[in-house]
Design goal:
The chain is mainly alpha-helical and 287 residues long. It is 38% helix and 7% strand. It binds zinc ion. Zinc ion binds next to loops.
Length: 287
């Protein structure tokens, strides 16, 4: 579906020339061990280019991947239909809406309308596309487009419009709430496949079809650990700034950091192709 791209050279040589770029050794070690042992960045220049990209994540880059022009129509109409679907079910419910239930609702409510064949095929292509083609190098916890979040497994967090998993996330969030009090807020919890589709495709839409740019700040559907228990926290009253580097200036960030809660999914200068996300709490430190 996307323009072919030269195979990326990854990080066998990572431990050699990159300390000077400010990457912590433990991140390097984990990266090489966990994600792409055997691959290599051929030069320091390649690494510098990579870091430039994730530091300037919101700007287009010369080798970014764009949506093919012949798929643009299906892409745009999918975005619009997903927006209508979210409006129909409400933001809270949309967080946990499954793919199949979403299709059914769209078909049954004329203000959303049935997903067309070309929209479904577009969504399938996006879901099963290898994130590495965009430059997204994280794991894929949600394997199938039809994977379900079961209502019995989740709990709605009052006043947030967000849900957390009963068995893995709520306990950590409750502990954080108890220790930090009312100044901490849950900014994003569980996101099922439909929600991640809309978030990712909205970003692609705002970036004129740039899949790589979008994937530097939003995981493609299937690749988000919000489907698997991770959640985002913020400082009350900080609004959209909670999703920027300014979050690190807040009391909430300082306290979470001191208390050891910030086992980050996307640390500074990570090698997963993703910007620094100090607000994103990793639930299972092993994955
Ligand atoms: Zn997050």
């Amino acid at each position: 579906m996307v323009k072919s791209m030269k195979r990326r050279h990854l990080l066998k040589a990572l431990g050699l020339g990159c300390i000077g770029f400010g990457i912590a050794p433990e991140i390097l070690a984990k990266t090489v061990r966990g994600y792409f042992a055997g691959a290599t960045y051929s030069t320091d220049g390649g690494l510098k280019d990579y870091l430039h990209k994730i530091h300037n994540f919101n700007h287009p880059h010369h080798d970014d991947l764009q949506i093919d022009s012949n798929l643009y129509g299906a892409f745009e109409s999918t975005v619009m239909r997903l927006r209508r679907l979210q409006k129909l079910v409400g933001h809270g419910n949309f967080h946990i809406l499954n793919f199949s239930d979403g299709l059914l609702l769209a078909r049954n409510y004329s203000k959303v309308g049935r997903f067309t064949k070309s929209e479904l095929s577009f969504m399938e292509t996006i879901f099963y596309e290898d994130g590495q083609h965009y430059g997204f190098l994280g794991q894929k916890p949600i394997k199938e487009i039809t994977d379900q979040v079961k209502k019995n497994d989740v709990v709605k967090i009052p006043y947030s419009g967000n849900y957390l998993y009963k068995d893995r996330s709520i306990e950590i969030f409750e502990r954080i709430k108890k220790e930090l009090g009312d100044q901490v807020v849950l900014t994003s919890g569980i996101r099922n496949v439909m929600k991640q589709f809309l978030l990712f495709l909205n970003k692609v839409y705002d970036s004129n079809g740039n899949l790589s740019l979008a994937s530097r700040s939003l995981a493609p559907p299937g690749y988000s650990f919000h489907g698997n228990g991770d959640f985002d926290v913020g400082q009350v009253g900080y609004g959209a700034l909670n999703f920027t580097g300014r979050f690190t200036e807040t009391e909430v960030y300082k306290k979470l950091s001191e208390r050891g809660y910030l086992k980050l999914r996307y640390p500074q200068d990570n090698m997963l192709g993703v910007r620094y996300e100090p607000w994103h709490i990793k639930i299972n430190a092993d994955v």
